[in-house]
């Protein structure tokens, strides 16, 4: 069959999205505990709408949309496409049912499979690739959201997971990077997002970057030293965030009988001091670095050192604001809204997490979140400067 490799990849990605939800109860699919969380049902439908909206509706002959209301219900932030349900209200949608959403997925998957057997122009192939990458991004977000949904319930319901955040008991050492002019940004023929483009040079002073991430045990030392009570360590916004939310530890941590426990999807258990510390906001990461007399790496320092680092367990906060590279240009229309309009008030994370799709784990990938976000799998790597 024509384009069989692409069809197989498409079907595999679609199936994996549904596999992530395999252990959920129907009642789990529609819950939205906070504004930054999207219900699993919404993810399932939105990643389907993306293919329907940007490929089938635009390019498949005689295609009829599955349901006229779904563009309004499951558009995320594409103003060029039309009006939509506001993000805080996604959890109010008990209709369509979970069953109906899975029927929608099956319908669009079948129509896409048929479409993929046709002759595809480069323009259409590029949009299909964005659609596949987009669904994989939502797969990772579903990991975050499902954990937040279950982790905010009184009984901490568990599901099976193979995520292993343990780390060898390796001494914290530092890799020296010489000062110089380095090239930053994506180049080559593989897929990348537009925010990785704009290959350019930066000058870096001498610095030393940690050979590993900070562990739970090391972060407990920060807690015990009064790190969450010392305003001198925090940015002003970070200190306000700590005070307003009465933070005393990372997300999902609870102190019981003078010992730290945490919810880890598969169990509610004592914190393992040898695991990498995760669910850390930028504010906490920066405060920890200040307590150690160090800093977080800039995204450029991280990228230059990436080939010498063991990364992939957690996204790593950098000390860089999310800004466009030189000569960055947004695409025309709705797909131009994918990255560019978010280049304000957010910080860059680099690397990848155990929840990240393999082909998203490249050294030029620029993840980004607001500095108060903690529900994603994020951690800390330190840098020393001379």
- Low confidence ranges: none
Instruction: Name the average pLDDT.
Output: 96
Helix content: 25-40%
Overall shape:
globular
Enumerate the strands of the largest sheet in spatial order, edge to edge or round the barrel: 10-9-8-11
> What pattern of helices and strands is seen along the backbone?
HHHHHEEEEHHEEEHHEEEEE
Oligomer: single chain
- SS summary, helix count: 9
Query: From the alpha-carbon coordinates, what is the Rg to the nearest angstrom?
Result: 22 Å
SS class: alpha+beta
Largest sheet: 4 strands, mixed
Percent strand equals: 5-15%
Euclidean distance between termini CA atoms: 60 Å
How many strands appear in the DSSP assignment? 12
Describe the structure.
This protein has 386 residues and is an alpha+beta fold. It is 33% helix and 13% strand. Strand 5 and strand 6 form a beta hairpin. Helix 2 runs parallel beside helix 4 and helix 7 packs across helix 8. The chain is globular and about 65 Å long. The model has no long low-confidence stretch (mean pLDDT 96).
Fill in the keyword field for this structure:
alpha+beta; 9 helices; globular; four-stranded mixed β-sheet; 386 residues; 12 strands
């Amino acid at each position: 069959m024509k384009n069989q490799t692409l069809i197989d990849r498409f079907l595999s990605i679609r199936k994996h999205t549904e596999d992530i939800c395999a252990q959920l109860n129907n009642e789990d699919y529609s819950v939205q505990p906070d504004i930054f969380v999207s219900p699993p049902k919404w993810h399932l439908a939105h990643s389907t709408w993306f293919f329907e909206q940007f490929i089938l509706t635009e390019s498949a002959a005689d295609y009829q949309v599955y349901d006229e209301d779904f563009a309004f219900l499951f558009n995320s932030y594409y103003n060029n496409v039309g009006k939509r349900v506001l993000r805080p209200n996604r959890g109010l949608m008990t209709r369509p049912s979970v069953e109906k959403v899975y029927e929608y997925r099956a319908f669009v998957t079948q129509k896409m499979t048929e479409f993929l057997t046709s002759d595809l122009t480069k323009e259409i192939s590029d949009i299909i690739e964005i659609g596949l990458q987009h669904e994989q991004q939502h797969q990772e977000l579903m990991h975050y959201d499902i954990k937040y949904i279950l982790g905010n319930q009184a009984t901490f319901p568990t599901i099976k997971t193979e995520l292993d955040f343990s780390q060898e008991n390796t001494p914290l050492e530092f890799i020296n990077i010489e000062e110089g002019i380095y090239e930053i940004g994506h180049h080559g023929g593989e897929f990348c997002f537009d925010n990785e483009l704009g290959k350019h040079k930066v000058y870096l002073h001498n610095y030393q970057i940690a050979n590993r991430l900070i562990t739970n045990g090391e972060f407990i030392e920060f807690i015990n030293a009064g790190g969450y009570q010392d305003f001198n360590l925090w940015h002003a916004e970070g200190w306000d965030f700590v005070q307003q939310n009465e933070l005393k530890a990372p997300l999902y941590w609870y102190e019981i009988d003078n010992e730290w426990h945490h919810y880890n999807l598969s169990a509610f258990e004592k914190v393992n001091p040898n695991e990498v510390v995760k669910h850390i906001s930028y504010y906490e990461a920066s405060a920890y670095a200040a307590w150690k007399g160090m800093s977080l790496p800039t995204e450029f320092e991280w990228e230059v050192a990436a080939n010498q680092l063991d990364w992939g367990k957690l996204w790593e906060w950098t000390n860089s604001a999310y800004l466009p590279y030189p000569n960055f240009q947004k695409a025309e229309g709705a797909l131009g809204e994918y990255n560019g309009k978010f280049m304000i008030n957010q910080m860059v994370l680099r690397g990848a997490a155990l929840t990240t799709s393999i082909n998203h784990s490249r050294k030029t990938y620029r993840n980004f979140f607001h500095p108060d976000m903690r529900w994603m799998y994020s951690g800390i790597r330190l840098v020393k400067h001379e």
